[in-house]
Design goal:
Length: 240
């Protein structure tokens, strides 16, 4: 049995991390039996989630989880796609993970209102007298990471300009298809499905969400992915 270690449902989402959502989509696509468990970042070898454990072997990172499932179980997640389409979907995945992810992190962690609505909930187990200090230290580390990536050195307007170009690329790649894989989702749908599902939560004051909502093809796609893979989860609710 495969065990997926993740954060668990939060923010009206199957998981607050798009990477954990991506990993679970891959597991559902694989058809393999699995169970979920709330992970412990302190015990995660790379200090991050998701990770899976199978037969005593721990695999960290959503991309390496995919590689493991492909190699261990002989799965071709993008079966039926030609080399050009496979390459386009891999490039799309890395654009989301290496740029859009950080735009979303900046919105949720560095904006005081969004932090209070969302990430601050992670710190409830911290004793109340220490909580403000711990939150400040973690947010400072997040800001350093966002700045170190480079996206944090851009103004909010500049970040949205990059996001617009990325979303337009997604619309072009999706085209008239129901999924990025065509009539049915493939492995290359896991990342775009995860990031768009995450982006559309109404909990946050999110200019990025507004850009997604302006592109009906992407909102419809996100709805199909959520219905197909997480129909049992609670639907999104308005932050109000």
């Amino acid at each position: 049995m495969i065990t997926l270690h993740h954060f668990g449902p939060a923010f009206g989402l199957p998981d607050p991390s798009p990477f954990c959502i991506k990993a679970e989509i891959l597991l559902k696509l694989s058809g393999l039996p699995y169970e979920t468990r709330i992970g412990d970042l302190r015990r995660a070898p790379k200090g991050k989630l998701p990770l899976i454990v199978e037969d005593g072997v721990t695999i960290c990172d959503s991309s390496f989880i995919r590689f493991h499932l492909e190699e261990r179980h002989g799965i071709d997640f993008d079966a039926g796609l030609d080399a050009e389409r496979r390459g386009a979907l891999w490039a799309l995945e890395k654009m989301l993970e290496d740029q859009i992810h950080w735009i979303m992190v900046a919105e949720r962690w560095l904006d005081d209102g969004n932090f209070a609505r969302g990430p601050a909930q992670f710190f409830k187990p911290v004793p109340a007298p220490l909580r403000p200090l711990v939150c400040a230290l973690v947010r400072r580390k997040v800001r350093r990471n966002v700045d170190g990536h480079g996206i944090g050195r851009h103004s909010p307007a500049e970040r949205l300009k990059l996001a617009e170009r990325a979303l337009d690329a997604m619309v072009a790649i999706l085209g008239e298809h129901r999924y990025f894989g065509g009539d049915a989702p493939v492995g290359g749908d896991a990342a775009p499905g995860a990031f768009l599902i995450a982006a559309l939560t109404p909990l946050f004051d999110s200019p990025f969400r507004g850009l997604v909502e302006q592109r009906s093809a992407l909102t419809a796609y996100a709805g199909r992915m959520r219905e197909r893979f997480f129909a049992e989860e609670q639907p999104l609710r308005s932050a109000a």
